[in-house]
Amino acid sequence: MIDFFQSIGHNVLSRFASLGRATRMLLGALISVPDFRKGPGLLIRQLYMVGHQSLLIIMVSGLFIGMVLALQGYTVLVGYGAEDSLGPLVALSLLRELGPVVTALLFAGRAGSALTAEIGLMKATEQLSSLEMMAIDPLRRIISPRFWAGFISMPLLALIFSAVAIIGAHLVGVDWLGVDSGSFWSIMQSQVSFEKDILNGMIKSFVFALVVTWIALYKGYDCVPTSEGISKATTETVVHSSLAVLGFDFLLTAVMFSG
Amino acid sequence: MNTRKIEILVGLFVAFGVAAFAVLALKVANSGISGSGETYTLNAKFENIGSLKTRAPIKVGGVVVGRVDGISIHPQEFVPVVAMSIDADYECQFSDTTSVSILTSGVLGEQYLGISPVIASESAKQTCLGNEVTDTSSDLDDLFGVQSKALKDGDLVTDTKSALVLEELIGQFLFNQGSE
Amino acid sequence: MSELVNVDVESDLSQAIVEIKDVTFSRGERTIYKNMSFCVPKGKITAIMGPSGIGKTTMLRLIGGQLKPDSGDILFEGQSIPSMSRKALYDIRTKMSMLFQSGALFTDMSVFDNIAFPLREHTQLSEELIRLVVLMKLQAVGLRGAKDLMPSELSGGMARRAALARSIALDPELIMYDEPFAGQDPISMGVLVKLIKSLNEVLGISSLIVTHDVNEVLSIADHVVIIAEQGVIGSGTPEQMQQHDSALVQQFLKGLSDGPVPFHYKAQNYQEELLSGSQQ
């Protein structure tokens, strides 16, 4: 029995220690940012790896999710003769929830796992140690540009996701199912607010970007430097960041849209 | 992969993002009233607001001039009070005899507020804007011996028509049929 | 330098580049070193040898300042590494370099860019000058023709040579080699032995080699330190070590399977265990 409580206590303490190390890593990466002599090149390279490489999966998923939303929404709305409200239904669900959340989940799977694996591999092959021995801070050189790339990319990806999904919904709703194009757009416009919906959605996106990128980088940086450790860290990145995204989404929605 | 190609692709990615933002901001959201800043608030008491929601549009002759900002219950009279946020361009334009009614667009459509404006007199406008009024002789209102005022921020509109509730309408209809 | 007298050393130690003084270091519950002292002479090749798993690599990380000892002091050119500020530590690291066991080349850069990397980070040289320096370093390790290859295209021995070129890019005063001969075929082993020797002779770089490849390292080392049982069990020139009277040193140098380090892992009596059946 004592052992049981002891192991709980031990677990809790090691969770706190882990959170502390993660915070120290993030602060180390953020405080030591400005190295503009080499900075932009590194950042652009990471924007390519993290952002541009995720573009295809985001756009394709967005298109399909928009089309499915339109199809499902239409079958329900047409029963009430309210198929004109398809526009706001699709736009609001995308901008407020699906855009930021699905993008964050896809991002965790596509870019987050890649970041963890890359950094874990750098650790396992002693590249991080070797940077330190070359008197170059790996937090500044490796972690910082990846963090900023993730932080910038994800909101852009979420915007692209929503825009493509709305186009997909238009394709299905207007061009296939025959909702009037004019009312599709105009009712959407009358219902969607720039600040309340688009900006709040973007704030969500920035929060998710911080959470996912941070978890991915930390899991890589703190992993056990063996092939087993890296694969475990990669899995943990996807699981932990997906759960964190959904949890934060609930909190943010409660704050933003319940009033 | 050389640097230049990466730069171009990243540029493309950022351009996509900005374009998506522009599409969402301009095409999807209402870039009209709520985005353009300055508004002032009028309150109106109703007996029944039906299913009026916050952010429902406020229209004058079909043109949107504002949005419903909040709905609350009057603390003493226990009737709903609707706070209307209206474009600041129309401040001091409406007279206090203006009426506000809750209307429905289409049979099952959303409910909105319609303002039937009574244009405030020149002197009332000036008073409302805080200017000194020197010459009041030309005002028509004086003929009736009533001094009308213009509506400014925070004022209460008294002349309101509540929402039509379907059950009440049917009840009235049956009642009328019966009495004939 | 009077405190060095007690160390059993015959080589010329009038100038030591690294001094380890009474260092105790433990990882978790396990004590790795206990009051260990030795020094690394300037301009010589020093070998640290010992059985696997006694923390030879840890020693290099202590010298590099990546780890801090529990007690004791580590001096590099007379300056104390553990008590250094972060900035001073980063400054002094430009004077030392480390060849990692895996080579630790950056996998996303070509060989050329790998070697140019420390130059681009720490100097203001023009690209043209950097090109010249990199080509000279690559020529020294015989890999000038491989400059456009990616690290994944190199064999293990070539990767280690490329990493060696990178570690001498900034002309350090001390190179620490972590198991440079591990997993190499005889030819690349010979190449590495020759390279380490010639870098030491031509450039006068002090070298510290951590290894358990006895024959290779005894052929080039000027000074040997053997570590076991949480401390130094013997040090001196290779010849002195061959004559050393410690049984442990002899077992290690000759590669005997049984001796002070037993062949059998700690276990209960063999006969008893066989006869005990399945009750246990």
Automatic annotation (TrEMBL), chain A:
Keywords: Cell inner membrane, Cell membrane, Membrane, Transmembrane, Transmembrane helix, Transport. The gene is mlaE. It is found in: Cell inner membrane. Its main location: membrane. The chain crosses the membrane at residues 54-74, 86-108, 147-172, 198-217, 238-257. It is a multi-pass membrane protein. The complex is composed of two ATP-binding proteins (MlaF), two transmembrane proteins (MlaE), two cytoplasmic solute-binding proteins (MlaB) and six periplasmic solute-binding proteins (MlaD). Signal peptide: none annotated. NCBIfam families: MlaE family lipid ABC transporter permease subunit (TIGR00056), perm_MlaE_1 (NF033619). Part of the ABC transporter complex MlaFEDB, which is involved in a phospholipid transport pathway that maintains lipid asymmetry in the outer membrane by retrograde trafficking of phospholipids from the outer membrane to the inner membrane. Probably responsible for the translocation of the substrate across the membrane. GO terms for cellular component: ATP-binding cassette (ABC) transporter complex. This is Intermembrane phospholipid transport system permease protein MlaE. InterPro entries: ABC_MlaE_roteobac, MlaE_Permease, Permease_MalE. Belongs to the MlaE permease family. GO terms for molecular function: phospholipid transporter activity.
TrEMBL record, chain B:
InterPro entries: ABC_MlaD, Mce/MlaD, MlaD_Phospholipid_Transporter. Pfam families: MlaD. GO terms for molecular function: phospholipid binding; phospholipid transporter activity. Residues 39-117 form the Mce/MlaD domain. NCBIfam families: OM_asym_MlaD. PANTHER family: INTERMEMBRANE PHOSPHOLIPID TRANSPORT SYSTEM BINDING PROTEIN MLAD, INTERMEMBRANE PHOSPHOLIPID TRANSPORT SYSTEM BINDING PROTEIN MLAD-RELATED. This is Intermembrane phospholipid transport system binding protein MlaD. It comes from Pseudoalteromonas holothuriae. The lineage of its organism: Bacteria, Pseudomonadati, Pseudomonadota, Gammaproteobacteria, Alteromonadales. The gene is mlaD.
From TrEMBL, chain C:
Keywords: ATP-binding, Hydrolase, Nucleotide-binding, Transport. The keyword Kinase does not apply. SUPFAM superfamilies: P-loop containing nucleoside triphosphate hydrolases (SSF52540). The keyword Transport applies. Pfam families: ABC_tran. Residues 18-254 form the ABC transporter domain. Its EC number is 3.6.3.-. It comes from the Bacteria. GO terms for molecular function: ATP binding; ATP hydrolysis activity. SMART domains: AAA. This is Intermembrane phospholipid transport system ATP-binding protein MlaF. It comes from Pseudoalteromonas holothuriae.
